[in-house]
Design goal:
four-stranded antiparallel sheet; 2 domains; 7 helices; disordered C terminus; single chain; alpha/beta; globular; 231 residues; Rossmann fold; 25% strand
């Protein structure tokens, strides 16, 4: 589903966020990307979403090389990818349903189809009863679930999340991960950047650790399930 081939991202001034990175994520996997602040986690996700492009090397998503995607085709490319952010990025002047509907509106979906998909997405995250509320009235965990609903409303093949539990307490973090796990169980590929190693170790998923833009070890980490199991 995702392949990085000797990918380097170098910024003006010579700083390298990623350095010759090669890795692969299979279709249907749920994989965590870990590493210290500045290790390259966010850059990796941005390259997948075509928010940024590599300086050298190749990123392949679902068989398509991102370097062949022209600027005008980026919106269409992103429709296959759901994106969840740590800071939610919600519009506080619009109700929950309108926030979730935004990707469909941009894609030109009709009102009936948009309404049906928005309700289905909100139901999956347990917030259908709050579709007319303003995001400001919701808790941090609920706001994050609105962000997840918006990410999956287009029924993406791939979901990427950048520190989605970074601002949440342990119970809410676990709740968000349970939602991600449900999507993974129906075939969605997930790639999640997180620093919460204790939570990751409970899930038993593959872990890719970055260190200064490179893989921390020759082999990807696999969580040790002896210390806990998926609740």
């Amino acid at each position: 589903m995702i392949r990085f081939e000797e990918v380097t991202r170098r910024f003006p001034g010579g700083q390298e966020a990623l350095s010759g990175l090669t890795l692969e994520v299979d279709k249907g996997e749920m994989v965590f990307v870990t590493g210290h602040s500045g290790a390259g986690k966010s850059t990796l996700l941005k390259l997948i979403a075509l928010i940024d492009r590599p300086t050298s090397g190749q990123v392949i998503v679902d068989g398509q090389s991102t370097r062949r995607v022209k600027r005008r085709k980026i919106p269409a490319y992103r429709r296959q990818i759901g994106m969840v952010f740590q800071d939610h990025k919600l519009l506080y002047d619009r109700p929950v349903a309108d926030n979730v509907a935004l990707p469909l509106v941009i894609a030109g979906a009709g009102p009936r189809e948009t309404g049906r998909r928005v309700r289905a997405a909100l139901e999956q995250v347990g917030l259908l009863h709050k579709e007319r509320q303003n995001p400001e009235t919701l808790s941090a965990g609920e706001q994050q679930r609105v962000g997840i609903a918006r990410a999956i409303v287009t029924r993406p093949k791939l979901l990427i999340a950048d520190e989605p539990t970074g601002n949440l307490d342990p119970d809410l973090s676990l709740e968000v991960m349970r939602i991600f796990r449900r999507f993974n169980e129906v075939g969605v590929t997930l790639m999640i950047a997180s620093h919460d190693i204790a939570l990751i170790d409970r899930l038993g998923c593959r872990r890719i650790e970055l260190d200064e833009g490179r893989l921390a070890t020759p082999a990807d980490h696999v969580a040790d399930e002896e210390g806990g199991s998926w609740p």
